User: What shape does this take?
Amino acid sequence: MSALTLPDIPHSGNGKGRMVIFFLSPRVIDFDTYLPVAMEMKAARPDWDIRFVTFSTENYDIIGKNPTLMAGLHRCGRLQCFSSAGPGGFIGRTLRRLMSLFSLVFMIVRRPKPILFQARPFAQMPYSLFYALSRLRGGVAFLLWKNRSPDVVHHIVWQNREKPAQHQSSFLNRLIGRDIDGLIYYHREQKDNVSLSGRYGRIENVPWHSIGLPHLFPRWRELIDDEVAAAHRDLEKEGFPADTEIYCFFAAKPFSSVNLRTAQSVEETFALCLKTLCDLRPDALVLIRPHPLAVDAVHIKAGIEIVGSKRARISFIHPEVLIALSRRAICDNPTNIIFSCFPGKIIDCSDYPDSHYAEFGQVSLAHGYGPVFVNPVAVDFKKQFASALEDSAFDNLALHSLKYELLADSEPDLTPVLEMVG
Assistant: This one.
């Protein structure tokens, strides 16, 4: 597919003002983080033409299947895919790349003062070219960080993965003298990981601005409230009474076990937690939200088969909507979700390695951000899990101390962005 054959996802209408382009990585987390910012931006500048650009057909399809993301997109802009995938072998791919490049160049230069965002510096081709063209048209380009989580979310990851190598800026960027015009992040607890983006280009000697947690922007909150109400209506249409106990389960991809105790930690913990929850709450409905790379995972299908498809099923409802719908959200991996300060009660059942307990004790990696931890290999796991289903389990203020501090320090404010873009 190419941008010439893949239809645009429906959107709120073309603005006639400045062109705003958010470049997305192949992971959906970029779009999920950027969308609340774009919605608030559209409210502040209704004439701006906001585009999200992805080069991954898989990412494009994942976004297109998510009703909440689609509803938010419809309120602010459009999503376009520029992929080289398709027939014709090498020649076909090359032609599609060239057509995509020409389309993007035209998109950038067609109006004065374009605004570009992505999660890395614009230091290598073709982004160097996009940045140069933007500057020629009087525009600007910013590094907009890709997730809202604090640095600690990557604590275990960086124990098992090499940090990225240092990349050199392109010759074109060296002529320009910089790789971005500013850096935008969300709160003070993520500066270490944001700084790692400097491995991909120059981020020094430009303004840095924090804009607060993006999911707290008013337009996004309105969208989530609308989506929660719609989800309740849909469940009632299916015959579920309004007082049905709903639980959600965020199921990790199998190879997330590389950061856990054993190679089977994800699969074994998922099966244990799902069966335990269904045993303790026989009348509940469990909505399972798999990681995008675990949609067809064998262990998830097997777990649903064991408890029955009337008890548990796959759901692609947005995580924030699921948490708002549910009495509890269960996680089998230290996902970004448990650090995100979403309203709701979360149980972390990650099968952490021994090094985690030696450093932090018998608590979640997100201790202080809200989750209650239940060790999946504890002898009395079922008893602990049952206790976590009681509201009193969340009364301990120590569970929420970091969350309250972060929320108090991260009121959303788009003003720095609007001032920087001019």
